[in-house]
Design goal:
heterodimer, A: 323 residues, Rossmann fold, 2 domains, 7-stranded mixed β-sheet, B: 337 residues, alpha/beta, 6-stranded parallel β-sheet, two-stranded antiparallel ribbon, 11 helices, globular
Chain lengths: 323, 337
């Protein structure tokens, strides 16, 4: 084990899979000469050359569409979209092509494709600060992964690259510098398996990506007051692994979902619906959700700071639920 | 070769009758098969046996047949949704195509695609796509895979003139040109995107001139002349195959039927349609074959009879075949792993 950043963990996964399988190639904006907008692919252009590291024009529909075609043709492309906001330009390719080709031709073709893209924000205003994971998780035929730790990011990315299915691999710009323990040797993390990041008996907090860290911070604070939260990291948003959530709710009788997207029709809506249907009798209080304020992201720092629940707000909500 | 001049470029004519009797009959057979197949499909649609959309290719058969004659069997083909002609031209059994139209288990795409999504990947037919222009980047990707793997095949990407106003057309062909991908874009200009005349909605009315946006060769040919199509596709495919990058062919043709079933066709006159029918690619090829003694009248008639029974057999096969098992509903969504 050694301490590595989320960025380095992802870089290691990419590099190891590039070395392991000749069919893996990377394409996207600034992935080559620049070294990646978030420096994830730094050094790759020199190491692997322009046959396997392809700088593209700023045309997300071409990036994803070409990657889908290359995947159909026997390669294992990893397409990078500079931020998840730009995925909207590629939505037709993702939803109508990547997600459908296996099904609509009756399993004749497959699309072993990974689309890496970071969510995130930081005074970037309305169009560069969005969370669209629920849009992708809505679509049968896609796998959606959204890791919170360096360990999960590396292991899940390796699994995603080896998968024969299209995977939306959603990173988080504000996690790239976060450090965590990563094994020195080869390992993978399975897709579709939630992870208990902190065991607890009193309240279940379901989260994913950056909000897992907020939930863990809140849980630490709450522990001082004697409230023990169980924090479950979904890691994969489609398919959802609800079993650990259900087991937890049977124990705590309380569930709070903490997400970074707008709560209306967001990931939490789905999770709440499933808990309410499948563990209705276990619940002592209604399932609660916390997410982004439902306005387009403002630029001003003080306003942006109000957009997401912080550790204090989460702790407050948990105390209300536990009361 | 790139046609950058704003002046009207003459349609390229076929360079003489460089075709064998065997080829001449094969093309006549395939074009007639597509025509007869679709007439029967139209009938079955009217009887409620085929659902959804049914976009007929009638009038445009020379493009698919001429192109397939030029392409090698291992060349990749990816198409738009008016796609029955391409699969039949590549020699797929009509009964499997008809079964797909009927939504039957033995259909080409197991009854999951229907009219717009015909694929036979084993024969390098990567499918019909129904979002206009959306498959053009896929074609670039298939060509990228061929180039990356040092495979000798080109990708032939078919779409209508309407697709050349989409972003995907520009984004896809730009990348194909930047990476010098082995790709031949074959634009079937049948003059209408649904019911809107191309010149009403396209700033540039001649599609071949749009090739200049990518600095690639672009030509306009008579898409109702099967031989002209064969020759042009062969020439452009060979150029692309030998490192010449993407090529664009604009094949001028005309759709005799409506856009789909139930099109009132208010956007064009009966006279215009009748006039276009005087350039029917099948009748025209039949005349060429006769005038050049490439086949006898008996041989041509015999082909007509064979096609009739082949299509009837396809209909019987589709009518009698089982629908997909209900359990199939949940299959094919993801590759099991």
């Amino acid at each position: 084990m050694s301490l590595k950043t989320y960025r380095d963990a992802i870089r290691e996964a990419l590099r190891e899979e590039m070395l392991r399988d000749e069919r893996v190639l990377i394409l996207g904006e600034e992935v080559g000469v620049w070294g990646g907008t978030y420096a994830v692919t730094r050094g790759f252009y020199g190491e692997f050359g322009d046959k396997r590291i392809l700088d593209t024009p700023i045309a997300e529909d071409a990036i994803v569409g070409t990657a889908v075609g290359a995947a159909m043709g026997g390669l294992r492309p990893v397409a990078e979209l500079m931020t998840i906001n730009f995925s909207l330009v590629a939505m037709d390719q993702i939803v109508n092509n990547a997600a459908k080709i296996h099904a609509m031709f009756g399993s004749q073709a497959r699309v072993p494709l990974v689309i890496r893209t970071p969510a995130g924000w930081g005074q970037l205003a309305a169009t560069h600060s969005q969370s669209f994971e629920a849009w992708f998780a809505h679509v049968p035929g896609l796998i959606v992964v959204m890791p919170s730790t360096p360990y999960d990011a590396k292991g899940l990315l390796k699994t995603a690259i080896r998968s024969d299915n299209p995977v939306m691999f959603i990173e988080h710009a504000r996690l790239y510098g976060v450090k965590g323990e990563v094994p020195d040797g080869e390992y993978t993390v399975p897709i579709g398996v939630s992870d208990i990041k902190r065991p607890g008996r009193d309240v279940t907090i379901v989260s994913y990506s950056r909000m897992v860290h907020v939930a863990l911070g809140a849980a630490d604070e709450l522990a001082k007051t004697g409230i023990e939260c169980e924090v479950i990291d979904l890691r994969t948003l489609r398919p959802l692994d609800m079993a650990p959530v259900y087991e937890s709710v049977e124990k705590t009788h309380r569930a709070l979902i903490v997400e970074e997207d707008w709560t209306t029709c967001g990931m939490g809506a789905e999770i709440a619906a499933r808990i309410s249907r499948d563990r209705f009798d276990s619940l002592d209080v209604p399932v609660e959700r916390m997410g982004q304020v439902e306005v387009p992201m403002p630029y001003a720092k003080n306003l942006e700071d109000l957009m997401f629940p912080d550790e204090k707000a989460v702790a407050q909500k948990v105390m209300e639920m536990a009361a | 070769m790139a046609s950058t001049s704003p002046s009207r470029v003459p349609i390229e004519a076929a360079a003489g009758i460089n075709v064998t009797g065997e080829e001449a009959l094969d093309w006549f057979r395939k074009m007639s098969l597509i025509r007869r197949f679709e007439e029967r499909a139209e009938e079955a649609y009217g009887q409620g046996r085929i659902g959804g959309f049914l976009h007929l290719y009638i009038g445009e058969e020379a493009v698919a047949v001429g192109a397939m004659a030029a392409l090698r069997p291992e060349d990749d083909v990816i198409t738009h949704y008016r796609d029955h002609g391409y699969v039949l031209a590549r020699g797929i059994e009509p009964k499997r195509v008809m079964a797909e139209l009927y939504g039957k288990a033995a259909g080409l795409s197991k009854g999951k695609g229907g009219s717009m999504h015909m694929a036979d990947v084993g024969r390098h037919l990567w499918g019909g796509y129904a979002i206009v222009g959306g498959h053009i980047p896929l074609a670039a990707g298939l060509a990228l895979a061929n180039q990356y793997r040092n495979l000798p095949q080109v990708v032939a990407c078919f779409f209508g003139e309407g697709a050349t106003n989409t972003g995907a057309f520009y984004a896809g062909l730009n990348l194909a040109a930047v990476w010098k991908l082995p790709l031949v874009a074959i634009v079937e200009n049948n003059r209408y995107g649904m019911g809107t005349a191309f010149e009403r909605v396209s700033a540039v009315g001649e599609v071949h001139r749009k090739a200049s946006a990518f600095d690639i060769p672009g030509i306009r040919i008579d898409g109702n002349d099967v031989l002209a199509v064969r020759d042009a596709v062969r020439r452009m495919a060979n150029r692309s195959r030998t490192g010449g990058g993407p090529q664009l062919i604009e094949a001028m043709t005309y759709r005799f039927r409506g856009h789909s079933m139930g099109d009132p066709q208010r956007y064009r006159t009966k006279e215009e349609v009748e006039e276009a029918k005087s350039r029917d690619p099948i009748a025209r090829w039949r005349r060429t074959v006769q005038e050049n003694d490439l086949a006898t009248e008996d041989e041509l008639r015999k082909i007509g009879d064979e096609i009739d029974s082949e299509v009837e057999e396809a209909v019987r096969f589709a009518e009698n075949g089982p629908a997909p098992d209900p359990g199939e509903l949940y299959n094919d969504v993801l590759v099991a792993e």
